[in-house]
């Protein structure tokens, strides 16, 4: 196994540890909703970016999976949804305006920084026509849509439990 696959494995293990440590037991159902809904967003977006040739993920944890889906399972379908779970569960609902914007920039910036470091130092990500600021913007938009859905779902869940 090469260095890139060890990095992917390390990121997956770190993500699992974050879930175990940061998701309260009573919020597991909400975490699943956030996790799965973000995948609804990342699936078509990731496929478009890869199929258009803007970005490439040459090394996968499972190389044969690259024959069917050239997006990054590890990043788009696991790491990013884990980041979205932490984002939504700990979102400062009492902050408005600039404080809320800083929260978005922090999380999107973390994910973007990680991708840029991996792009420049490994063969896990290759930008072709893609730029780091597209990652920043698309991550912020995805987190926004996902968090709006989570809040809508949470309100519906509370109404069902009250009945």
TrEMBL record:
Domain of life the protein comes from: Bacteria
InterPro entries named in the record: CBO0543-like (IPR048147), LptG/LptF_permease (IPR005495)
Coiled-coil positions: none
Keywords assigned by UniProt, alphabetized: Cell membrane, Membrane, Transmembrane, Transmembrane helix
The keyword Membrane is assigned to this record: yes
GO cellular component: a single term: plasma membrane
Compartments reported by the entry: Cell membrane
Transmembrane portions of the chain: 6-23, 32-55, 75-92, 101-118, 130-146
Membrane protein topology class: Multi-pass membrane protein
NCBIfam families assigned to the protein according to its UniProt record, in alphabetical order: CBO0543_fam
Protein name per UniProt: Uncharacterized protein
């Amino acid at each position: 196994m090469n260095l890139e696959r060890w990095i992917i494995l390390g990121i997956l293990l770190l993500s699992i540890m974050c879930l175990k440590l940061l998701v309260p037991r009573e919020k597991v159902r909400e975490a699943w909703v956030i996790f799965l809904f973000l995948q609804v967003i990342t699936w078509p977006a990731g496929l478009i970016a890869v199929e258009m040739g803007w970005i490439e993920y040459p090394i996968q944890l499972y190389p044969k999976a690259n024959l069917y889906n050239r997006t990054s399972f590890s990043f788009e379908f696991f790491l990013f949804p884990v980041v979205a779970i932490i984002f939504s569960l700990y979102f400062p609902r009492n902050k408005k305006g600039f404080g809320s914007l800083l929260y978005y920039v922090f999380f999107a910036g973390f994910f973007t920084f990680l991708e840029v470091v991996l792009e420049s130092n490994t063969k896990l990500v290759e930008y072709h026509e893609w730029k780091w600021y597209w990652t920043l913007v698309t991550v912020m938009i995805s987190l926004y849509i996902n968090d709006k859905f989570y809040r809508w779902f949470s309100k519906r869940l509370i109404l069902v439990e009250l009945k």
